[in-house]
């Protein structure tokens, strides 16, 4: 679970934990332990500083013991960057939207193994992170049985399967409209095809290679829109909305169809663990709060509000599967999470279907705050049900 | 079994179980359970489609067509019975028998498939069946919606294989289920297919350790297949009355052995 | 043996009795039925739902017939019991009086025992003869109750119907068979041996043929166990292998029985009914083959008790008579909220309002059309308020997980007549007097 606690963000864990502790004093020892643990605030573990400059990470090789570890990422480049820990092509943890000259911290609970770290521009060489076994990672092996999560994970798998099938179908429609030269039809198909993608983004974004082909924004390429590597949804969006034409988009559409088809197959192979149901949703909420909501992803079509609603639907699907367990373990956490979804949805509904261009900074801040609150609440789930 | 219980049981198994089945073994069930839900969803789609045609025939007063559609329509329901039965109100509304009512067939409460079956075969008429047909379609549609919204409890899915055999053993082998139409062999087909699907889905998980067990189970399914094949007619089966006493005994033995064997499936997969 | 005493409002305590039994060991079991009045001063009667103990029942056991209440309700269950339901042919109060007097006489004789009259051998014999020339009491009790239909079908009886007496309605899991339901009158017959119960039934049928036609009957039994080690009596098991009756109220405590079982003045019942009780009967088929193929843990979760020991799940080592502490387990982590015993009695003071006295027997009939065993529970219970008692408890159980394994197929609601005070009285005398007094 990622760390909510940069100093500027007031933590909501505190009041929640206090209320929880009061309720649990009657309920007995085991749960009180969790409340007490939460009341102290999440543990940060050892802190490592990584500086990212225009060419890569410094240091480029790190060795840390398993367990909670905090990374301080210093952006010494002149571009806004994201920093990721990758297991093969899977994103384990990430911090996005670190402005030039700023630092951001990320706390991750790492299992033993070898990971890569992404360092700024996609073209930069990746660093290596080695996680060695520790006492806590050995103890972790005796965590509670997973049987209770089989049902929720299966249901989520069905959901991902249905949405990724819809994604392939809808992307094909987009490609068809582009090839038919139907600009208006292609724009509608663009918005439609992004919905299933956004519903599963909290997991599909972990498949880094495909994510970088399907949904990168121009800002992550050296030459931005003119970069030959710029492809995927936003390249098509750029054509449809900025250049007002379907011309030249067919190869991008075909590649996108191939990529989402590959994504569907990769998602079918993906094995989720119980923690993922909450952590991927929380990670998605943070990504929205910190990057997508303030800046917008669809910089040419400004169709972001539809994306956000689809994101929220997908997050709510995975988290709601845990409700029966959370309600038994910690009803107050269940209520806070449900309220968080309701509040975020209400904030989205207030913005309606407007072009995101017309959504002012104040409104974006409110939306962003709603997603931050939601992320913080979702981050309490795994602790509440004894997963951490 | 109600939904209320399911969630209770899910939460409970999470807190109570201490026996440590390997993590990977347990999470390996995610895929079969997800696949099973997709199987059930497809059957439900077919059930709604078929029930729409069946009830339309009933409402149009077309006795011959309604009779022809009765057994094929039920096939999808019978295959997913362990999940359908989780919603006891709908199971009663869709598939209860005259025995469940004090005044049997004459009971005004007697609903669903078997009420229509009674009208079609015993009275050779669709009289009074219009409202029953409307209700059946509404109930089947509602069932489809509820199941699609349901998180499948793994122990119910795995246990479902045995449940299907228990149903046949306890109340179907006698021919009581479709007592007016004698289309029981169709129902059996659905029940066996549904049970076999579950075995197929979990097979990779137990294959290594339970080879002998799977061999016995497969042999019994094969025995059932052989007998059913003898009674095939067109896309379906002949009337249950044609089943010979000897074949009925073999079927009965196979079903009971399958029920015994499949009842251990949950335990083998670490689901008590 | 720790058995928590519930709040005073509750009627579920049998602690002293158990303790005494433990202390006395087997001595307490000697002839449990005979001379109840004399023995009560020194050794208590046994708990009503304790399993009968092997080798202590005797053909000479005699349960007194006369008393304020009928026998066979708070009387410890012997090994055999049955319910027979009849329809009554009685057009006038005189007809009904004649029937009730006749039954009274038969019961008085059968429960007391005696030598049968010898008739001219050219005539049919006076008796079936299946127990020989001398009828032994054999702990026989015969308990007579009236059904709603008896009152409903007769204008002169209608106004006198007990307020909660009604025709049993279908509960959601029921598959009631009309041939096993209701009746104008039920006769519960219990005795040490099956021969005695069957003999009594045949005697009554033979002698009352003018007034009664048999509608249905169900026999049952209670497993007899070996004398318990250490003297702690155990509750008998049902055909699902679980103990039944553990949480029954103390049938030996008269104050508790007044509160739970007997209709007294002040319950708003007709005056004639004082001293009687409501009887609920259910024939509940058990799907035993399927049950035997159900994982043990699931069986235990369904009941809320351990199977072998019978202890509540939150105190699995504490023994059968430990009281579960549901307040400490509000989410049902130890004892699922929908387990049978927790739904039936959640151990709150409010639930004490719904206490019933259960007196069930197991039955084993034969084979179903599908070639499975036809076994189950002949459930019988008694209470002073049918609505607050059985009906409320059953409504709470509606939808319980156990329903997958059981199917109620018959039974009904009846009103058990007050007792016969002495040889000059007869069963239902207060009812007949009330009919005659009516305008």
From TrEMBL, chain A:
Q: Which domain of life is it from?
A: Bacteria
Q: What InterPro entries does the record tag this protein with?
A: Cupredoxin, EfeM/EfeO_iron_uptake, EfeO_Cupredoxin, Imelysin-like, Imelysin-like_EfeO/Algp7, Imelysin_sf, Iron_uptake_EfeM/EfeO
Show the CDD domains listed in the entry.
Imelysin-like_EfeO
Q: Could you tell me where this protein is found in the cell? A: Periplasm
List the Pfam families: Cupredoxin_1, Peptidase_M75
TM segment ranges: 12-34
Tell me yes or no: is Nuclease among this UniProt entry's keywords.
no
Main location per the UniProt record: periplasm
A GO cellular component term found in this entry reads: periplasmic space
Locate the Imelysin-like domain: which residues? 164-379
Q: Which UniProt keywords apply?
A: Membrane, Signal, Transmembrane, Transmembrane helix
Record's NCBIfam families?
EfeO (NF041757), PRK10378.1 (NF007697)
Record-stated family: Belongs to the EfeM/EfeO family.
Q: What is this protein called?
A: Iron uptake system component EfeO
Q: Which organism is it from?
A: Allorhizobium borbori
Automatic annotation (TrEMBL), chain B:
Against CDD domains, the record matches this protein to: Imelysin-like_EfeO (cd14656)
Q: Where in the cell is it found?
A: Cell envelope
Extent of the signal sequence: 1-22
Q: Which domain of life is it from?
A: Bacteria
Q: Name one GO cellular component term.
A: cell envelope
What the entry lists under Gene3D superfamilies is as follows:
M75 peptidase, HXXE motif
Query: Which key words tag this protein in UniProt?
Result: Signal
* Imelysin-like domain: residues covered: 33-265
Check the record and name the InterPro entries matching this protein: EfeM/EfeO_iron_uptake (IPR050894), Imelysin-like (IPR018976), Imelysin-like_EfeO/Algp7 (IPR034981), Imelysin_sf (IPR038352), Iron_uptake_EfeM/EfeO (IPR053377)
UniProt lists the family membership as follows: Belongs to the EfeM/EfeO family.
PANTHER family in alphabetical order? IRON UPTAKE SYSTEM COMPONENT EFEO (PTHR39192:SF1)
Q: Report what the protein is called.
A: Iron uptake system component EfeO
Organism, scientific name: Allorhizobium borbori
Automatic annotation (TrEMBL), chain C:
Q: Name one GO cellular component term.
A: cytosol
Localization of this protein: Cell envelope
Q: What detail does the entry give on cofactor binding? A: Binds 1 heme b (iron(II)-protoporphyrin IX) group non-covalently per subunit.
Example GO molecular function term?
Answer: heme binding
InterPro entries reported for this sequence: Dimeric_a/b-barrel (IPR011008), Dyp_perox_C (IPR048328), Dyp_perox_N (IPR048327), Dyp_peroxidase (IPR006314), EfeB/EfeN (IPR006313), TAT_signal (IPR006311)
- Residue stretches making up the Dyp-type peroxidase N-terminal domain: 70-220
Ranges where the Dyp-type peroxidase C-terminal domain occurs: 236-420
Q: Name one GO biological process term.
A: iron import into cell
Protein family (similarity comment) = Belongs to the DyP-type peroxidase family. EfeB subfamily.
List the protein's name: Deferrochelatase
Q: What is the lineage of its organism?
A: Bacteria, Pseudomonadati, Pseudomonadota, Alphaproteobacteria, Hyphomicrobiales
């Amino acid at each position: 679970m990622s760390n909510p606690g940069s100093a500027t963000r007031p933590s909501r864990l505190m009041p929640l934990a206090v209320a929880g502790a009061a309720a649990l004093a009657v309920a007995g020892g085991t749960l009180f332990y969790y409340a007490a643990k939460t009341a102290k605030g999440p543990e940060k573990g050892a802190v490592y500083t990584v500086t990212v400059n225009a060419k890569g990470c410094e240091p480029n090789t790190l060795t840390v013991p398993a367990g909670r570890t905090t990374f301080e990422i210093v952006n010494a480049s002149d571009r806004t960057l994201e920093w990721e820990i990758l297991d093969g092509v899977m994103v384990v943890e990430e911090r996005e939207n670190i402005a030039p000259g700023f630092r951001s911290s990320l706390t991750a609970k790492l299992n033993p193994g070898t990971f890569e770290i992404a360092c700024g521009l996609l073209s930069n060489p990746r660093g290596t992170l080695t996680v060695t076994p520790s006492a806590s990672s050995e103890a972790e092996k005796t965590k509670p049985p997973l049987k209770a999560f089989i049902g929720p994970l299966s249901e989520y798998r069905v959901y991902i399967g249905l949405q990724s099938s819809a994604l392939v179908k809808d992307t094909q429609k987009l490609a068809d409209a582009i090839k038919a030269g139907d600009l208006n039809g292609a724009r509608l198909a663009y918005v439609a095809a992004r919905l299933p993608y956004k519903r599963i983004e909290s997991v599909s974004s972990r498949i880094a290679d495909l994510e970088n082909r399907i949904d990168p924004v121009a800002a992550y390429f050296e030459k931005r829109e003119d970069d030959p590597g710029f492809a995927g949804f936003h390249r098509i969006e750029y054509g449809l909305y900025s250049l007002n034409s379907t011309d030249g988009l067919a190869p991008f559409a075909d590649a996108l169809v191939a990529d989402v088809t590959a994504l569907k197959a990769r998602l079918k192979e993906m094995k989720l663990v119980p923690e993922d149901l909450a952590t991927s949703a929380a990670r998605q909420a943070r990504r929205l709060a910190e990057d997508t909501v303030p800046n917008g992803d669809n910089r040419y079509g400004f169709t972001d509000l539809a994306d956000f609603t689809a994101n929220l639907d997908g997050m709510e699907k995975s988290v709601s599967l845990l409700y029966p367990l959370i309600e038994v373990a910690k009803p107050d956490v269940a209520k806070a999470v449900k309220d968080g979804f309701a509040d975020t949805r209400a904030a989205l509904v207030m913005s309606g279907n407007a072009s995101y261009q017309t959504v002012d900074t104040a409104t974006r801040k409110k939306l962003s705050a709603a997603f931050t609150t939601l992320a913080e609440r979702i981050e309490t789930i795994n602790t509440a049900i004894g997963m951490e | 079994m109600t939904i209320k219980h399911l969630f209770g049981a899910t939460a409970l198994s999470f807190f109570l179980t201490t026996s440590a089945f390997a993590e990977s073994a347990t999470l390996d069930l995610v895929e079969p359970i997800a696949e099973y839900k997709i199987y059930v969803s497809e059957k439900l789609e077919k059930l709604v489609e078929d029930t729409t045609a069946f009830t339309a025939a009933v409402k149009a007063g077309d006795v011959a067509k309604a009779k022809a559609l009765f057994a094929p329509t039920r096939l999808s329901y019978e295959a997913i019975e362990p999940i359908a039965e989780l919603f006891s109100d709908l199971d009663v509304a869709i598939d209860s028998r005259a025995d469940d009512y004090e005044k049997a067939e004459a009971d005004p409460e007697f609903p669903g498939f078997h009420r229509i079956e009674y009208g079609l075969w015993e009275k050779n008429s669709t009289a009074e069946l219009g409202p029953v047909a409307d209700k059946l379609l509404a109930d089947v549609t509602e069932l489809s919606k509820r199941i699609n919204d349901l998180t499948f409890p793994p122990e119910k899915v795995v246990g479902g294989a045995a449940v299907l055999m228990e149903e046949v053993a306890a109340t179907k082998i006698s021919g009581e289920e479709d007592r007016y139409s004698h289309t029981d062999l169709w129902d059996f087909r659905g029940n066996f297919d549904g049970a076999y699907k579950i075995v197929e889905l979990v097979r990779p998980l137990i294959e290594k350790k339970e080879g002998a067990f799977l061999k016995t189970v497969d042999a019994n399914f094969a025995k059932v297949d052989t007998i059913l094949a003898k009674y095939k007619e067109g896309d379906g089966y002949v009337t249950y009355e044609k089943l010979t006493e000897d074949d009925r005994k073999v079927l009965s033995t196979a079903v009971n052995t399958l029920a015994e064997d499949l009842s251990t499936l949950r335990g083998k997969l670490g689901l008590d | 043996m720790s058995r928590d005493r519930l709040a005073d409002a509750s009627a579920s305590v049998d602690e002293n009795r158990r303790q005494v039994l433990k202390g006395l060991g087997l001595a307490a079991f000697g002839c449990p039925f005979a001379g109840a009045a004399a023995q009560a001063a020194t050794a208590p009667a046994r708990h009503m739902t304790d399993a009968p103990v092997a080798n202590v029942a005797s053909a000479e056991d005699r349960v007194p017939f006369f008393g304020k209440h009928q026998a066979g309700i708070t009387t410890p269950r012997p090994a055999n019991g049955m319910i027979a339901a009849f329809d009554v042919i009685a057009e006038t109060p005189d007809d009904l009086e004649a029937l009730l007097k006749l039954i009274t006489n038969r019961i008085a004789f059968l429960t007391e025992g005696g030598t049968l009259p010898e008739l001219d051998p050219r005539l049919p014999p006076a008796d079936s003869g299946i127990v020989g020339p001398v009828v032994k009491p054999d702990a026989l009790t015969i308990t007579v109750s009236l059904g709603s239909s008896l009152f409903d079908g007769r204008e002169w009886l209608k106004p006198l119907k007990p307020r909660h007496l009604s025709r049993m309605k279908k509960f959601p899991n029921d598959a009631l068979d009309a041939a096993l339901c209701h009746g104008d009158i039920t006769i519960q017959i219990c005795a040490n041996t099956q021969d005695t119960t069957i003999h009594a039934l045949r005697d009554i049928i033979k002698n009352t043929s003018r007034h009664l036609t048999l509608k249905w009957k169900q026999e049952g039994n209670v497993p007899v166990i070996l004398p318990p080690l250490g003297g702690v009596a155990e509750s008998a098991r049902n055909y699902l292998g679980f103990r039944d009756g553990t949480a029954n109220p103390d049938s030996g405590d008269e104050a508790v029985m007044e509160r739970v079982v007997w209709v007294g003045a002040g319950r708003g019942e007709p005056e004639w009914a004082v001293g009687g009780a409501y009887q609920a009967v259910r024939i509940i088929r058990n799907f035993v083959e399927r049950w035997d193929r159900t994982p043990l843990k699931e069986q235990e979760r369904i009941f809320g008790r351990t199977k072998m020991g019978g202890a509540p799940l939150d105190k699995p080592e504490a023994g059968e008579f430990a009281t579960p502490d549901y307040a400490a387990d509000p989410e049902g982590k130890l004892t699922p909220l929908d387990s049978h015993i927790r739904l039936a009695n959640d151990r709150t003071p409010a639930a004490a309002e719904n206490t019933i006295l259960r007196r069930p027997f197991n039955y084993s009939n034969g084979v179903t059309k599908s070639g499975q065993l036809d076994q189950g529970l002949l459930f019988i219970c008694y209470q002073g308020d049918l609505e607050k008692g059985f009906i409320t408890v059953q409504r709470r159980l509606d939808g319980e997980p156990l329903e997958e394994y059981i199917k109620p197929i018959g039974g009904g609601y009846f009103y058990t007549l007050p007792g016969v005070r002495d040889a000059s009285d007869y069963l239902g005398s207060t009812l007949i007097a009330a009919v005659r007094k009516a305008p």
